[in-house]
Amino acid sequence: MLTPEHLHGLRNLSLAARQAAEGFLSGAHASRRHGAGMEFSQYRPYQPGDDLRRLDWRLAARSDRYYLRESEVDTSLTVHLLLDASASMNHRDDNGLTKLEYARLLLAALAYIATQQGDAVGLTILHPAGLQHLPPRADTRQLPRLYHALETAEAAGRFPATETLAPLTARRQRALMVCVSDLYEDGNEINSLLSRLRATSGDVLLLHLMARNELQFSYQGAVTFKDLETGQTLQIDADQQRAAYQQQLQLWLRETAQAARRQGFDYHLVDASQPLDGGVREFLRKRNLTP
């Protein structure tokens, strides 16, 4: 698998997304359903209420029975990508990448895959100054729009207030919502947004992004931490605090995953030091495209 450092080093989001995604696409299959498409699949007996235009009259004349011609058509979805662009996403991992840089790569790869499958793809960047929103489209110019929005996205401030987020849940639209966030929040604002999206859109895939140095607490000796969103600082001895930190972290991760699943979200923890395969595989599974 290509490392996130390699993909970021390409300095070309379009190329990075394609390289990250094509290995998965080679093992994926198109999700299909029976319907009134162009490619013939099978016959099935007529049932009251069926469309008479799909009856095979020649077969009926020969067998004195009524059958409908069924075909297979590719299913397509509306995929709506959400990027948490609050300041905590500027946290830098030991590999040199920030969470935001990793999130760019991951969402670009998901956008590429969805577009290859014929899905309408949209993007909303969640920023305290306002939402940057690209409505879902399935045309050939959508990917460059998405890449440009991701490349120019900057993380700042705190997670948007409820009134800023209101347009996201103003109307019902069946879609697969894919949110990439580190779930750093003051209260319950991220969870509240996802709950509303679950009610208005139906499906929510939450990709919980954390840096390796957060997961392993790889710091040593005296360390000064600065909260990227509040500016507050904290001085600790990392070696003395490591065990307590790990205990609290595992408890929080366990409770976060359980709460997300209780509310009907598909939850997956993403280690930002690892290749993109975990997040991509969860998307493919949700998209019913896993081999």
TrEMBL record:
Domain DUF58: 42-248
Pfam families hit by this protein: DUF58
InterPro entries per UniProt: DUF58, vWFA_dom_sf
Name of the molecule in the record: DUF58 domain-containing protein
Organism: Hymenobacter negativus
Upper taxonomic lineage: Bacteria, Pseudomonadati, Bacteroidota, Cytophagia, Cytophagales
